[in-house]
Fold these 2 entries.
Entry 1:
Amino acid sequence: MSILKKGLAGAPVKILQEKLGVPADGQFGPKTEEALKAYQKEHGLSVDGIAGPDTFAALGLYELILLKVGTSGESVKKLQTALGIAADGKFGAGTAKAVKDYQAANGLDADGFAGPATLAKLALFKELTPDVVSKAELTPGSGPVEASAAGEAPAKSIWGTIKGFFS
């Protein structure tokens, strides 16, 4: 999961809520969606109530950026440009291979996910400092890492705490 939307819960949702100034209960419900849409509208983003990499960058939540197969947008385009591959803004198999190759060549976990550690190494966002990268890592007691087993997030990522709570 590299997006946050209504029905999800976990540490990344709580971080988003804190930034939006809504009650931070870690449950992405109607108030979070409403606040997110207002932010997106005010900042010229796609107003869909879904927080993805471009919204995270606009919010200054670089620790939540996780680019993977299926992700699209300006952040993916920046990644592709930095990797020296065709920049169409769509993270597909070719981008995943380029990310894995870059990671392997630069001492990173070659998992094909472009999270904060990879993006920092690429100097994609100047705001991705070592402190920000450490915020993206799962800390003891943060919750289970069920999603990583399903290939949804790198094993050490806080994205592994995301769960759906609506049917």
Entry 2:
Amino acid sequence: MNIVTSQEIAQFRSLLADYPQALEALDLIEDCEGDLEDATMTLSIRIGQEPGTENSEWLYSLAKKWRTVICRSEFREDLLNSNLKGVMMYFEQISSFPILLAAPILMYAFKKGWNNFCQPLDSTLNNFKG
């Protein structure tokens, strides 16, 4: 279970203030008492997706699917400095990205720790270089 605190929700609310759909998602996360899995499942259904897995697996699979975008080298420094604008602008350019799910996906990665979240991708990339 991935629970975010009201302080973390407030932090993300200020970081994502320019993105109305992210704020909508944060409202729902707050309504779900910080439960990212429940909020993500509800948001997914709202946009017409039909999650077929358990809540925690659905959020994990979404985050994993978008890891290659979130963990791009040009976003790393910004993420570590709590600047989400670059990754959000990139998400907005991807027609297949469900922008309503950006906030819970980014909060999930944040809770895991940016470096920990990106580590599986880093390992894969290092294996190709090796």
